[in-house]
Amino acid sequence: FSGPAHLSRLAGKCFSFVESTYKYEFCPFHNVTQHEQTFRWNAYSGILGIWHEWEIDNNTFVGMWMREGDSCETKSRQTKVHLVCGKSNKLAYVSEPSTCVYSLTFETPLVCHPHSLLVYPTLSEALQRKWDEAEQLLYDKLITDKGYKKILKEIFEEAGLLKVTEEKEAEKQNKKINLEFETVEKCSKEYKQLSEEIKKLKDLLSQHGLAYKGNSGE
Fold first, then answer.
1. Coiled-coil intervals in this record (predicted)?
2. What is the pLDDT of residue 184?
3. Which of 7, 42, 43, 121 is the most exposed place for a label (fewest CB within 10 A)?
4. What is the spatial distance between Cα 10 and Cα 26, in angstroms, rounded to a whole number?
5. Paired residues of 103 in beta bridges
6. Per-residue pLDDT at 211
7. pLDDT of residue 174
8. Cα–Cα distance for residue pair 83/66, rounded to 1 Å
9. Confidence at residue 44, expressed as pLDDT on a 0 to 100 scale
């Protein structure tokens, strides 16, 4: 789960919608599925998307993206869920605006308050400060609009509202490792700990009569 805290009430629940011969099921923060309700031997039943991230625009959560569903020709099926104010929680409308990209409208009283889908209040104090600083930099013309949007994207990624790409995640881990070993003292300390850990593991293997083959770069 990520996003406005009051929407956590939807987690763990599923909502259905039947149109023609298809039954759609939306499970917030989990997935969207489609089931063909016919007696055909090859009736389709599959995943239209798995909970991925929010779509954010102008300090507002404008939609939920469910991605990496079942394969469809050369890509995966994906679904955008629009949250709109309604008297009860229900899946109200489903369409397929482009091949294998679906659009769902979900009605809920949880988004009826004008501030219910604001992004800023869901952030930690540290990330709110970061956003305030970016606003000031933009106002003072010390960063461009593009630079401001880049900072916001990083804030939303850090908050878990947007998915970080695998490349970016690897980059982050490398930075972390580089910081860990930025001094000889830190490096020596870490090396000592790892050497002790390897010795313990070797002893454990020997106790159980398991062969161990190491190499010079262990």
1. 184-211
2. 76
3. 42
4. 10
5. 80, 95
6. 74
7. 61
8. 13
9. 80
Residue 25 pairs with which residues in a beta bridge? 16, 33
User: Alpha carbon 145 to chain centroid distance?
Assistant: 25
Q: What are 204's two structure tokens?
A: 């454990």
Give the DSSP H or E segment for 104. Answer: strand 101-108
Task: List the CATH code of the domain at 5-108.
Answer: 2.70.130.10
Distance, in Å, from the CA atom of 107 to the CA atom of 87, rounded to the nearest integer, reads 8
Q: What are phi and psi of 66, to 5 degrees?
A: -110, 115
- Residue 96 DSSP symbol: E
Residue 19: C-alpha distances to residues 26, 92, 160, 210 (Å):
14, 10, 34, 61
Which pLDDT value is given to residue 166? 64
Residue 40 has φ and ψ, to the nearest 5°, of -65, 145
3-state secondary structure 7-72: HHHHCCCCEEEEECCEEEEEECCCEEEEEECCCCCCCCEEEEEEEEEEEEECCEEEEEEEECCCEE
Quote the pLDDT of residue 165: 76
* CA–CA–CA angle 143, 174, 76 (5° rounding): 80
Return the H-helix or E-strand segment holding 75.
strand 75-76
How confident is the model over 192-216, as pLDDT tens digits?
888 888 888 888 888 877 777 665 5
Amino acid, single-letter form, for residue 51: W
The pLDDT value recorded for residue 199 is 83
